[in-house]
Amino acid sequence: MKYFGAEAREAQRYDRSVERYEDASIRTYTSLAVLNTGQAVIFTLGLTATMLMCAIGVRNGTNTVGDFVLVNAMMIQLYQPLNFMGMVYREIKQAIIDIEKMFGVLHREAEIKDAPDAKPLVVSAGTVRFDDVRFAYEPARPILKGISFEVPAGKTVAIVGPSGAGKSTISRLLFRLYDVSGGRILIDGQDIRAVTQDSLRASIGMVPQDTVLFNDTIRYNIRYGRWDAGDAEVEEAARLAQIDHFIRMAPKGYDTQVGERGLKLSGGEKQRVAIARTVLKAPPILVLDEATSALDTHTEHEIQGALDRVAKNRTSLVIAHRLSTIVGADEIIVLDQGRIAERGTHAKLLAQGGLYASMWNRQREAEAAREKLAKMADSSEAPNREPPLVDDPVTTPAAAE
Predict the structure, then answer these.
(1) Is 109 helix (H, G, I), strand (E, B) or coil?
(2) What are the residue boundaries of the structural domains of the chain, listed by start?
(3) What is the assigned CATH class of domain 128-354?
(4) What is the DSSP string of 329-359?
(5) Which own/partner contact pairs does 296-300 have at CB distance under 8 Å and 24+ positions apart?
(6) Residue 368 and residue 363: Cα distance in Å, rounded?
(7) pLDDT of 321-372, one tens digit each?
(8) Do β-strands 141-151 and 128-138 pair in parallel, antiparallel, or remain unpaired?
(9) For the whole prediction, is pTM greater than 0.70?
(10) 379 in the Ramachandran plot: left (φ > 0), alpha (ψ -120 to 50) or beta?
């Protein structure tokens, strides 16, 4: 709201919502007051008529004074509970509405469910295979159009491509946040739709592109990766993620509050916490979805070395935008419009001169332009030196002129 100066507009929206709530509350309490008033009038008239009839009976000798007192007491005791009927009715009605909403949530069917005969995933080597995988968030707009590739056990495969090519969708399908529309995904020959979701997700470590942190301490957020980890293991994971130094500089150290969704941390710090969380989990399969996108170049190189050590002897699937981070991958797969356009090593793809080489050249040109601008800025900020004196013995005659 502050970015776009929308405080007044949002305040007006809030005022309109409160106004509608006030109108509904006034109608509710007005109807309740009318109900209570009507009940009071009816019971008062009924009590008066009953007392008159009983008094006439006493005068005629058909009733006694005790009958009169009894009728009066019974009518008053009947009137008092019924006086709250309106309020009780309103509370019951509200409770029924709340219960209906609650059961509506509880009765919602999960989109992704375990098969009735699902078994725990057994990871022996960690080979991941995509076999003619097709997927679409909406049937009219397919995202993946028959993707087939394999990530061998202990190897690193990188997936690159233009925005919207389906790179992040592959990580979501592997983690089974969605089910494939066609084809299958196998881990050590086991279809992930035939295993339990808990065992599948316990075997995969994910560093997502959008890091989500809880409004708690840094220690809590790192330990979220493996809840039974000790403090020493948490600190070692932070050290591998190159965030231990920053944490120790904070006044409260690992007990520093990160704020709602990590509001008190920078983008790079949040991403390093997410990396430390995955390092602590130590899964056999590692998925890095733009894991260093929010880091500067210097920190990126440091963390890349840490990620390389963590990924050693682990099956790693790297989804990258910066091509410089995946030059050492065992295989690079280039996606374009939901299909595999190219695949091979970094050197092989550059030699082909195709889409990957074009992306690489554009990124190198952009980096060179940034470096040039940085040098120009540094030179413009440097203090101007005074011209040398004519009688300086070091100065040449030409320079003096």
Answers:
(1) coil
(2) 10-106, 128-354
(3) alpha beta
(4) -SEEEEEETTEEEEEE-HHHHHHHTSHHHHH
(5) 296/268, 299/242, 299/268, 299/272, 300/325
(6) 9
(7) 777 778 878 888 888 888 888 888 888 888 888 888 888 888 777 667 766 7
(8) antiparallel
(9) no
(10) alpha
The pLDDT value recorded for residue 395 is 40
Q: Using CA atoms, how far apart are residues 217 and 355, in angstroms rounded to an integer?
A: 44
Q: CA-CA distance, 315 to 174, in Å (whole number)?
A: 13
CA nearest neighbour of 78 among 39, 52, 34, 29: 39
Do 158 and 290 form a contact (C-beta atoms < 8 A)? no
Edge-to-edge strands of the sheet including 128-138?
141-151, 128-138, 182-187, 190-191
Whole-number Å distance between alpha carbons of 316 and 284 = 9
Express each pLDDT in 248-274 by its tens digit.
888 888 888 888 877 788 777 888 888
Place of tokens 């949530």: 105
The answer to whether residues 199 and 373 touch, using CB atoms and an 8 Å cutoff, is no
Question: From its phi and psi, is residue 226 left (phi > 0), alpha (psi between -120 and 50) or beta?
Answer: beta
